[in-house]
Amino acid sequence: MPNSYPIRPSVETLSTRQKALDVNLDSRRYGTFAEIGAGQEVVRWFFRVGAAAGTIAKSMSAYDMKVSDAIYGRASRYVCRERLQAMLDYEHALNLDRLRETRGDTTAFFAFADTVSARNFHGTNQCHGWMGIKFQAHPRDEDSQIIIHVRMLDNEAALQQEALGIVGVNLVYGATALNHEPELLVDSLLDGLTTSRIEIDMIEFSGIAFRHVDNRLMSLKLVELGLSGAAMFAANGEVLQPSEFFYRKAILVERGSFRPVCNVNLDMLRCAHEKFAELPRVEGKEIAQVMEITMNNLKSSGEIDLRDFLARADVIAACGMPVLISDYFEYYRLAAYLCGYTKEPIAITMGAASMKDLFDEKYYTKLQGGVLESFGRLFKNDLKVFCYPMEDRETGELVTSENFKTKSELQQLYDYIHNRGDIINLDNFDPSCLKIFSRDVLAQIKKGDSEWESKVPLPVAEVIKSKAYFGLPT
After folding, report:
1. Which structural domain range is residue 61 located in?
2. Which end of the chain is more exposed for a tag (fewer CB within 10 A), N or C?
3. Closest CA to 230 of 278, 195, 194
């Protein structure tokens, strides 16, 4: 979970009441609210502030599964994206079929929907939900759509419902008033809330109003603003929801700067995958592989360079890998995040150089138990760290997890963790990759030295050359 701090206000922060009233007083807006799972928390705001007759064509809840199936068709799960999309498509099409001829020239129709699992009586369920709006930005316009996934963090169902109502109003207002400024729209989604109450870990824009929006940048925005601790997208740029992507899968993560992706990065992942798949708890199971970039890395030189971010995303995509953007610089925080999405084994692969950072005490000063507490958290769920060897440039010695040395006062701790089998040596590496360092490759790219091309996968070289990424001379 990201730090709990108030979200930065939009240029003109309106109260939830004022947002709902502004929508109601906009004579162009007319549509349906369909809400399942936590009461009609969003539409209640529009009824309560007045003038709802000019906005709401219909409000409904379909709590009974058979009733819901009869209206929207069967779904694999009731709180899932598939169900939300069915609700949006059905309700929006119904409005257009029934009302387009009589008022289509002056009305921009919309359908808002959510399907939510709020806190149950025993407090044993995962509290999350899908929320979206399908709408016309202008009368007779082609459709546009925004979908978000939320995680509710309040401990009481009533508070979760209240938070859902607020974020739902923010979404409806954003779609109607801020669709021309998608970044400001994202910024406004938690107006009136804090990240201690609700997180938004996925957002997707589509349709005519958002034809120029790159959803990868919107995913980055979620994490940058603190609306979520992490966000994901696939190699094709499609936004991914972490709980669905990681559902019932073992997870293997490689963290890096990926400026650019080099042969050594893929070899590290290959080696770790081979070793991970051989573990008794993993054998025969599906492994979700992901490349992770931290916000700390993206901000290493100050503000985030969006072109640099897209360059990294594109070269990772060229390797067919999904991208995880996270604000979990400390590995134990990344481990805790991943453990929230699967009960299957989790592994992190890193080079021997990164192992030095793992044992650097300066990163754990905020923990009362310091480095000991950090490792207790990191390895408590049988997480494995796969260590890729490093060739010492001065001595030519191969540094592996078997001969790894840290500060004398931490060596016994390292030896204990290593002997327990939590840190595993990767001895199945390709020796030709050991002399490849991404910082050297980056320097060669900037100089126009063509030798860099032999050190990266062919698809990565093609992307870099076609788009002149990473300072390649044109």
Report:
1. 16-213
2. C
3. 195
